[in-house]
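Write out this protein's structure.
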Amino acid sequence: MTVTITKSAAEELNKKIGDQKGYLKIQNVNEGLACGAGVPTLFFVSSMDEAKDVLFETNNRSVLLEKSELIF
């Protein structure tokens, strides 16, 4: 999987995150949607769950994805 963060997206993320410690996390939100449907959503989380998350390096910062969502 390849994740690319554009320059303008990185600038916005840096404004919102500031000096907070944590990770960006992509999660497939599917509450209230049909089976198999989902909306990839970007969250900021304070810690990584090494048993559930995979860390991807990007051109700007690391991003987490739950192992169970790798199929999507």
